[in-house]
Amino acid sequence: MFKQFTENINGHQVYLLSSLGIFLVFFIVVAVMLFRLRKTHIDHMSALPLADGDTPTPNTLIP
Amino acid sequence: MQPEKFYYDNKIVRNFGIATIVWGIIGMTVGLIVAIQLFKPGMNMGNQYTTFGRIRPLHTNAVIFAFVGNAIFMGVYYSLQRLLKARMFSNILSQVHFWGWQLIIVSAVITLPLGLTTSHEYAELEWPIDIAITLIWVVFGINMFGTIFKRRERHLYVAIWFYIATFVTIAVLHIVNSFELPISAFKSYMVYAGVQDALVQWWYGHNAVAFFLTTPYLGMMYYFLPKMANRPVYSYKLSILHFWALIFIYIWAGPHHLLYTTLPGWAQSLGVAFSIMLIAPSWGGMINGLLTLRGAWDKVRDDVVLKFMVVGLTAYGMATFEGPMLSLKQINGLAHFTDWIVAHVHVGALGWNGFLTFAILYWLIPRIYKTELYSKKMASFHFWIGTLGILFYAIPMYWAGFTQGLMLKEFTPEGMLKYPSFLETTLRIIPMHMMRSVGGTLYLLGVIVMAYNLARTMAQGKLVANEAAEAMPLEPVTATTDGGSWHRKLERRPIPLMVGALIVILIGSIIELMPTMTISSNVPTIASVKPYTPLELQGRDVYIREGCSNCHSQTVRPFRSETERYGEYSKAGEFVYDHPFLWGSKRTGPDLAREGQKYGNAWHYNHMLDPRLMSPGSIMPNYDWLISQTLDTTTTRAKINAMRKLGVPYAVGYENQANADLNAQAQQIADNLGKDKIKVKSDKEIIALIAYLQRLGVDIKANKTASK
Predict the structure, then answer these.
(1) CA B440, CA B665: separation in Å to the nearest integer?
(2) What is the predicted ipTM?
(3) Hey, which residues 467-506 in chain B have their CB within 8 Å of chain A?
């Protein structure tokens, strides 16, 4: 099923390969940055929506 | 340091909320009307201003930019203030943004039925409105970044990154897809032509889905879902990873709308590859959302707001799985141009955008009015009738898509098309279209019940227009607080974050767009393809005004089933003078790329007068007004000049002679019609349209005759 896919490239593999390369580099950079994040920072960030000082209304009291 | 007291602006949130509901009802009602017109053409009320070709764009613009647009601003204005612990930057800018956006929508409601359109899907609005959109978008940007700069929370939560990416990408998309050369107050020609125009349009069209219907909603999901479930997001790391991956990959996927067209093969392959990769970040977002509800699934049973969120997220998951599948060439070959795509879009629109919007409205309105929801039963009714509506909508449309797609490709054992008449396939799916309008009615009914429920909620409470809050001001960054990883630093620097997002979306855009724009071998020219005559050019503009491309494509794909049915497959060089391109994206009727000289002028005249005279059972509306309306030839000079500026080789000074040529050609057609006992003056619009239709695909045939 991928025959048409590969046949239609007509010597333009450079576009596909370089695109994949750019994406991989980018993805690895983001992943490395993620691993360098501290646990406390992550906890702080994920709690941000819950800590915006909104007062709960009677029909959805925070348990 | 003392905590600072400030007030959240809830009034602007409320205003955008009301606008969401009002435009939602209007946009969906227009959708229902156009859906009914597809089995009962008389539902156009015999009126050009309410006919499918003109109001289908009104439906899409109203639900995308008016319903979803206002919902985005409602969600952003509510969550941004709270995540940044600051009031919106400027009350005046908030007001200008709100009223400016509503005025843009009103101008769309007026101009689209009048037939003032660029014909670019989801970008139909003409150039003055394009400028207004740009200005109001900038106002929104200033207001958002102004709020970010005066924030009291140092780090920007992931929702805000999604908002920033939305802002910057929509700005780029809108500007690049709006390069038009105006010829009058409400008429312009696209600067790009043919294949290049198609590539820009679908780069825009696909990313309007990505950055208007998806990224702002993901941002809203990341804020509202933790609030609704009262627990933090499942994985903050995953949210970061899928943010960057999503905005990087999405921008490349546009060419999957142009598979098997004359777009260069490598660009199509690139679009397919990135579309398939897109499953990963899309599902990353969906899974992150659903898993946020871990340990809270018991709440889903009781809380209608969470029910809406769960179905919305599931619809997102289904649509983002189906999208990559539809971009596979084999599947696309069958599904493209059929109702399958309509079903796919509506799973996303009704499920993801609609249900998330409803959930946020039900959650937010009682809060800013300091009251409870007027009726939970009504909200529950809305949920169930909405879900049923989606099913009744999507299932018949899938069925219709498979049926028609397969019928159009079926051959007899002798090698002939089994259904040579396109109309036969249309008639087969009419029951599915009827069922679809039932689904749409159910969904709309739910929205009306919601409007009533929320109106009563507002009436029983009192808007807290300015909600008091307190937070510590930001301390200046010192050496000790400035530590941490690069990404942590990025999270507190909005401008580098915006620039980063901009670079990420520009990489894909440039690699995809530039070669087709600049390397001439990507668009091989054909010597026999000549510019349109003035009458044909005017006829083409009538075709654009009536929105014919909403139902008729103009590109024959290289399948035997299509070359047998329509004629030779399309070549890139055939479209070099087409500002804008008119390939269309849906075949409610047959392709018209090879329509020229297939039938006589009289056939077209009678077919426009009443399509059922020539094709019994046809669902095409009557275009009888074209017979009575006089063609405006005062624009010919400006049109010829504009086309020449865009590179169409009309001789210098031809504009002076153009109307004489136009009249001569029109008289020929009128005389020819006279032979068939049709009396019509040569200055009527129908004559120009016939001239254009008779020209379609003819040049390439001339080439063949010459080379024989």
Answers:
(1) 46
(2) 0.75
(3) 469-471, 484-488, 491, 504
